[in-house]
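Morning!

As promised:
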Amino acid sequence: MRIMTYAEALREALRNEMKRDPRVFLLGEDIGVFGGTFGVTKGLLEEFGEDRVRDTPISETAITGVAIGAAATGMRPVAELMFMDFVTVAMDQLVNQAAKMRYMFGGKITIPMVLRMPAGAGIQAAAQHSQSLEAWFTHVPGLKVVYPSTPKDALGLLISAIRDDNPVVFVEHKVLYSMKGEVPDTNEPIPLGVADVKREGEDVTIVATGLMVHKALKAAEELAKEGIEAEVIDPRTLFPLDKETIYSSLKKTHRIVIVTEEVKRGSWAGELAAMIAEEMFDYLDAQIVRVCALNTPIPFTTVLENVVIPNEVDIIKAVKSIV
Amino acid sequence: MEISREVLLDMYTRMVKIRKFEERVAELFAQGKVLGFVHLYIGEEAVAVGVCENLKEEDYITSTHRGHGHLIAKGGDLKYMMAELFGKETGYCKGKGGSMHIADATKGILGANGIVGGGFPIAAGAALSAKMRGTDQVAVCFFGDGASNQATFHEALNIASIWKLPVVFVCENNLYGISMRQDRHQAIKDIADRAVGYGIPGVTVDGNDVLAVYEVAKEAINRARNGAGPTLVECKTYRYRGHFEGDPTVYRPKEEVEEWLAKDPILRLTRYILDNDIASEKELKDIEAKIIEEVEEAVKFAEESPYPKEEAAVEDVYTDIVEEVRVR
């Protein structure tokens, strides 16, 4: 085992794939000389040169579209958007072009590209640099959506995302970049569409994503002191979704809380809740509960940011409301 | 520069092919056999043909919602195109794309595009890929005057210029962005002027003169192929039909249409060929007759082809996932 931060693990995945496959290259704002706004690509310019680590102008549409054109013609680009929020500027290229080209063209063109983007609140970056927009992408057929919560998952999932022949939106939580964790000694891919049970328990299932996985784990430790054993599942990929792992947990616990950092209205959490209501109704002993961000933009000042983003107390309260 | 007989006749053939194909499509659309939206290229043939005549099969193009001309000029097969317009399984996209989304990766056709200006960064990306792979391939991005006002235009031309990408941006200035005349949708007359903003050459050419387009495109494409970077080429032209089939075109005066009909690109090339004794009238008629036959074969192929099976609706979304099908 090695100890790495989440950012280092992502870098290790990029390095691994760039060494393995000459078609893999990086493009994005300030990823080269500057090393990436969150430092993920630090050192890669020196290692691989400016042809494969391309600093781009501040042009999110061009970053995304250039990646699409390159992917359609034999390359495997990994593009970085500095913040997930900036994907709004690139939505046509991602949604109308990347996601649909294969289908529109009758399966004859593939777009093997990864679009990395830091999501989430917690660093007082305010409303235009803190969003969790993953539901937008799970809503679009043709995209895969990946969201690791640990260094180990970040490494293995990014390797798989780069090897995938479909456009993959790779969501990273900016608070997690500095988080350290154990990583296997060899750089092995973790398949997309396989959830990870982060903690076992019999009384309630908690499905959480990104930073919320860690808050859910803390909540579970507190709940354990009161004799409530929560099973914490990180789906790791939001689409394709490993329903089986979630459903088999639910068959054991009969109760579920879904925790994400998204605005609750129209969230991926809502989609999961709807799926469970449709397909697992008979196994439920209580209502499905969602713990999400409030339906507001993300405020700046810490005291307000903390109000909007869910925490351990909210999760504990939610669990207790159904156990 | 002298253009060879072979090239001239090839361009004539392709231009007539586009015209005849589309005239037939207009009829079939009126009969309800061609589905959806259809945007016809009639009148603009000299642009696609003059440009693509300079391309190799492995070169790339990105096209527009008015894409039939580009596809035919780049070597697209009429049978598969027509079948696609009919929504048949044998179409280029198995009936999932239609007129606005035809692609043929084997011929470097990276797709027509239903989004105005959608192709700019994709063409730049294909050019980047060619450069990184060390090939001498070139990408051509076709777009209209309306698309030159999209943000993608700016982002892609800028990135292509700083990276000296082998891409040529070809503007088909047909004077209207849907219903809005150019002098109402932008404050400049020549879109090629915008090249200055990217430090690249900008050339305006008579887009109804295939010989002029051919020459200008040749230089721009050679420039791209030789590593000198992108060029912005503006071709002044006119679409004879409405923005889409069914458009009553209330926004343009009859006199203007008449004026442009007199500048017909096919008539002009025909006159050039005959005046310079490059081919006889009979030879041209024979070419036309062959094309009409090819178009009719394409119609027959489309009509006789089956519609896709219902399961096909959930295929091809991903390379490795088939979505759930509705059970009825």
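Chain B has a mean pLDDT of 97.

Hope this helps with the figure draft.
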